[in-house]
């Protein structure tokens, strides 16, 4: 498929008004996306577990304008409050997606959005937020063109979400999603996420992700800036090729249920991501002292007890602690006894692999 497959075939009869609502989850990457080409095309393929508890719920009420507007007409409410400062991001998203959603200037939109996790938790809401928004817009497109089939609906939602935030393209469906073209993964694409197409051992079903909130403040360097710093980065070429190799290695690990192999790749990916930040120009560090304390504690605990527990990191200081269902009791006890002390105000979120986004309600006027 190419980008042109997502260009809509003109506007058919536009409904007068309606309301759509979706809940979309966050995701945690196992092989990380860090570095992109133009139009949010990833510099390397990535793969993630879709999460369950961490999610954004968004509704859009749409009212048709008498004449198409010169610019996008929308209001944005976040957790019940009008948020002017969130508007530029949505405006940019509308601009990027207008070519694929030609009805955008024909409506006035009221966008109401909220997260299941606290806004100031240091958890990025861009993946779940952009995924929920893209799904709402697809539901409107489906009202206009009811012939759209499910497969296309979800592919295009992922395609659109990706234009808002790259990793959002992996937040549409569950439970293990691969995004970015790879020679060895059939139907993999730079344009949208796909279900991981190979065998996945039961060890990796029901995986848990306990998110330790080490630092709830705004991070000092945004992902957008971080991605850009991969241009001309001295280790970029090696890094992109390493991501391909790690994705290839995961194939037999997923099939056989090899938890040690999984841990090695996942932790190496997290540390490589942060190593790229530390070796960019300008360089930066997003980990905090407590991030390192937690990592060392996890290593010591794993060594001593042989529990298959590991960590990964996003572009921030919070630590995602990953473990299979079989290690749940031991892991939770360990987290409570030894790791919670390193979380800001003792806060953490118990999450697990989820099944993807859900439509909550649709009312057509
Ligand atoms: O989707 P973005 O542009 O915020 O980039 C996210 C990148 C990481 O979260 C650090 C890695 C990933 O693959 O999710």
Account of the 3D structure:
The chain is an alpha+beta fold. The chain contains 8 helices and 14 strands. The protein has helices at 87-97, 126-144, 150-164, 223-228, 236-256, 259-278, 289-305, 328-339; strands spanning 17-31, 36-37, 41-42, 46-64, 73-78, 81-82, 107-115, 176-179, 193-195, 208-212, 310-313, 319-323, 348-352, 358-364. The strands form 3 sheets. Strands 1, 4, 5, 6, 7, 8, 9 and 14 form an 8-stranded mixed β-sheet that branches. Helix 2 packs across helix 3 (150-164) and helix 5 runs antiparallel to helix 6 (259-278). The longest helix has 21 residues, at 236-256. It binds (3R)-3-hydroxy-3-methyl-5-(phosphonooxy)pentanoic acid.
Secondary structure: elements and pairs:
Blueprint: E1 17-31, E2 36-37, E3 41-42, E4 46-64, E5 73-78, E6 81-82, H1 87-97, E7 107-115, H2 126-144, H3 150-164, E8 176-179, E9 193-195, E10 208-212, H4 223-228, H5 236-256, H6 259-278, H7 289-305, E11 310-313, E12 319-323, H8 328-339, E13 348-352, E14 358-364
Parallel strand pairs: 5-7
Antiparallel strand pairs: 1-4, 1-14, 2-3, 4-7, 4-8, 5-6, 8-9, 10-12, 10-13, 11-12
Helix pairs in contact: 2-3, 5-6
Bound molecules: (3R)-3-hydroxy-3-methyl-5-(phosphonooxy)pentanoic acid.
